[in-house]
Amino acid sequence: MRRFLGVTLAVVFAAGRLAGSGHAAGDDPALQAKLNARVQSLKEWASSPAVVAAVKAINAKVPPEYADMTEVKWAELSVLDPFVRSFTQNAAAAHLKSSKPAEVSEAFVSAANGMKVAFLSKTTNWSHKGKPKHDVPMAGKTWQGQVEVDKSTGQQQIQLAVPVLDGGKPIGSLVVGLSVSKLR
Fold first, then answer.
1. 3-183, what's its fold?
2. What is the DSSP letter of 59?
3. What number is the average pLDDT over the span 95-120?
4. Which of 20, 35, 68, 86 is the most buried (most CB within 10 A)?
5. pTM > 0.70: yes or no
6. Is 85 exposed, middle or buried (0-12, 13-18, 19+ CB in 10 A)?
C-alpha cells in the first residue's frame, strides 16, 4: 500500500502520521521526519526554470520518437542508447545533476502524459502514467512510497514525488528516490 503526504505538512508532521494507510516510514519516526523535511526542497527542485521549461516543451509537442516507445522497447534499450542518453544530457537533467543531494539515489521528471523528460539514470519504466507516483502529483499533491529495493539502482530507498507546477497548475511530476542508509 502507498501513503500520501497531505497538503499541509506541518499538520501531518504534528500529527505524527500520514494520510492514508499502509507501511512506509511510519515505523521509523526519525526517518519520516527527515522525509517530511525534504519535501519543500523537492518542490523547489521541481520548480526550477530548466525543469519547468523542459516539461512544458514536451507537453506542447511530443517528439516523434516518443510515439513508438513502449515499455517493452524501453526495457530493451541500453543505458548507452542515444535515445536513453538524451534524457541525461538535456538542461533539466543538468539541473538535476548539479543540485543533487548525496541522499538522492534516483530522480526523474515526467511530462503530463507520464513519459520521461529527464533523469539521472535510466528508469525501469518509460511511462509512469496510471501509477500513483505520477498521478498523485498530477493532482497537485505529494506522494510517498514504501521503503523498497529499487530495481533501477539496487539500493534500499523510498520515493517521494512532487508536482512540476506552471502557474500553480500541475504539468508533470518529479520522482526522487532517497537512499534510506544515507538518510539515517
1. Beta-Lactamase (3.30.450)
2. H
3. 96
4. 35
5. yes
6. middle
